[in-house]
Amino acid sequence: MLKIATEFYAESAVEAVSLLETDSEKGLTAEEVKRRLEEYGRNLITPAKNKPAWLRFISQFSQPLVYILVITSLITLFLNERLESAVIFGVVLINAFVGYVQEAKALQALEALAKSLKIQVQVIRNGQKRRVPSEEVVPGDIVLVASGDKIAADMRLIQAKELRVNESTLTGESLPVDKNVAVMPADTGLADRTNMLYASTLVSFGSGRAVVTETGDRSEVGRIARLVSSASDLDTPLTKKISRFSQLLLYVIFFLSLVVFVVGIFRGNSALDMFMAAVALAVSAIPEGMPAAVTITLAIGVSRMAKRKAIIRKLPAVETLGSTSIICSDKTGTLTENQMTVQTILADDREYQVLGNGYQPEGEIRLKEEPVAEAPFATPLYECLKAGLLCNDSQIVKKSSLYEAEGDPTEAALLVAAGKIKPFSQEQILEPRLDALPFESAFNYMATLHQGAENNIVYIKGSVEKILSCSVNQLQTDGSVKELQPEHITQQAEVIAARGLRVIAFAKISTHKNSLERADIAGATFLGLQGMIDPPRVEAIRAIQDCYRAGIEVKMITGDHLLTAKAIAKQMGFSSRDREEIMAVSGKQLAQLNDGEFDKVAKEAVVFARVTPEQKLRLVKALQKQGAIVAMTGDGVNDAPALKQADIGIAMGLAGTETAKEAADMILTDDNFASIHSAVEEGRCVYDNLRKFILWTIPTNLAESLAVIFAVFLGTLLPVLPVQLLWINMTTAVFLGMMIAFEPKEEETMSRPPLAPNLPILTGEMLLRTLYFGGLLAIGMYGLFYYELSQGASIQMARTIAATTLIMGETAYLLNCRSLSRSMFSIGLFTNPFIWAGISLMIGLQLLFIYQPAMQLFFNSSPLGVGSWSRIIILCIGLFAIVEAEKKIRKLFP
């Protein structure tokens, strides 16, 4: 076994090669590679296992309410009521099938987004360069990397030439990181280890040679994968509430059925009759359509969210979004455009504003709010823009209708800025490059030598400190030069940087040389500054304010530096609880906190910068411990553990890694925070519609149950037969209840705080309405039943009236339930056409129930006259008016 160090970044390159028992020039031998493959295994991360299809289908039955339906189906089958049994079991199967199909669709969508992780790696073995599959790389392999390569394992750099690596998938840092071979302190954080390369990151520029230190599950990516597996799978608020509600309902139904059975026996009825009465009570009390209604309502929410750029992997995640109280969002690409943009240019004490975001060739340059059409030749503005244009190795390319950067995002921003003003927007600068000094972190600048008309020109860009140190004067607007004012320029740069902008300085040198060396970078003329930023998405700014109005906190988690992140947060309108100043903390500060202090900071802080995967996971757990329903966004491997732990994990579909997508409950196809807000809005609508369905179904089932209970307690005939009760339950659930799922969101959906996770599915207000409406409908139904009998009607006709009263009463009540608190007339009569289609079908079916001979024979029904219909309709209008009046009273006296 090799002596594997855990801190290779703190070792020299020579020592790292020695510890790994390899040769930096010749690499490993074929025999040694074979031995190490056997010892360490292939360079693969152990994948998470998906449930097999049959197990996903079986899991759809794991709901207490479904258990009740299955038991009821078996009992009715035992009593030879085969049709009733088949219908009930059919409902269960349909519910399971819908849930299974949705999960299958989500998995297919995920597979469609997936990209192959298998890559070829250039290694040196036996002194020869060769390309091998990434899974065959072993510790000690010498690997050559170049621009565009994906890093296949964790490595310690041996050589680096102008090497820059995009580590955003691992650390969250949005800009490429300059790499070198220098030894780092032992306490250096992952994001600052500039002598290491990590699996899953991407070389954006330059080349290098490195020795592999860890592979597979032992790499940083593998360690994060283990964190993912340690994160908990959580029940959603809806799952918990429906589970508790179903259990309570099960106990109530069992108790009432037992009471009916015992009371009936004491009244001298036969055990078989009372058993049938108890079954009739169970059939009437169980909301058979509820599991299917829940599934279909969620499925409709999934469909609506897909149209708003969100793919839901698991159905309950739809409702969880509606309960979300805190959103922890990544910054780069989600809150921001992920396209560096120059926003300000400072030249000869004149500060120009640059309008337009991203790489699109749109926008203009202004001075004191006045557009500047052209940069006059040889002025500081002209020269500053020209320097950014020529001292540049990147380009902007158009792909379809989008513009993308090829190369460094910072350089791309400089190209776009120059293209917003004449002459650069219309003419190509014909000054051929003769030589260049590439950017290296040790020097902090880049320089290019260009052929001029008289003298050659060196253009330089870099850090403010470095450019000032090599400058001796500065260009003025009239074309002359004046004495350099380094302190004044430094202050100006600090003001720009305080706004969260990255500041680049520019200078030029006139020379007769045709080649360039580091020693030539002296005696320069300072040209100006350009300040750039990855700008906030305009729609994300609006969405954040909408979230605040909806009572949802938003926290920013980023790999960027603390000051940059805090400045972006201010621009986007982030706010802290009870604080005027935004509270921002770094990963280094978090590492020094105990559990109590960490929990307090997790609650109060808004910006978290440079945090590790473990800290992200700890943050989510801390917020959940305080009762929050947490939504977490992410795109990198480093985000996966927190995504899985969160109540709703949200991965990015465009920039997201496969690890992040696998851990998430929802995937954004446009990587936009505004889509999260839209999904939350749809989630609230789904939850509201589920509550409306429950508010509709429980009182109607109560009325049906009371019909059985009254009959047994009073020793009278059953007003409705069990087969008629089943007809009522099944038809109304499908043609009435299901239509609530299509209700559009109400105006106040995003202007109220999220519902508390411990709030019962039936609130006190809903319970009161359940009791009084269920009682009134049962009394009204009984009254009409006995009135018809007193008028000489047959028991068959009286029962038909009772059944029709229940159905028409449920139809009228459905209109009440279109809104939990507002009048049906205030939300609009025809905002949900499905309601009216369902009512029309329901009335049509009931007319068949009453007047079609075959239906009369099967359901023991009888034709009704105009008088009977009039009394039923008057009763239902009265019930509708009572509920509308109750809503009005609650609004007047909240």
Automatic annotation (TrEMBL):
Pfam families: Cation_ATPase (PF13246), Cation_ATPase_C (PF00689), Cation_ATPase_N (PF00690), E1-E2_ATPase (PF00122), Hydrolase_3 (PF08282). GO terms for molecular function: ATP binding; ATP hydrolysis activity; P-type sodium:potassium-exchanging transporter activity. It is a multi-pass membrane protein. SMART domains: Cation_ATPase_N. Residues 7-81 form the Cation-transporting P-type ATPase N-terminal domain. Coiled coil: none annotated. InterPro entries: ATPase_P-typ_cation-transptr_C, ATPase_P-typ_cation-transptr_N, ATPase_P-typ_cyto_dom_N, ATPase_P-typ_P_site, ATPase_P-typ_TM_dom_sf, ATPase_P-typ_transduc_dom_A_sf, ATPase_P-type_domA, Cation_transp_ATPase_P-type. Belongs to the cation transport ATPase (P-type) (TC 3.A.3) family. Type IIA subfamily. This is Carbonate dehydratase.
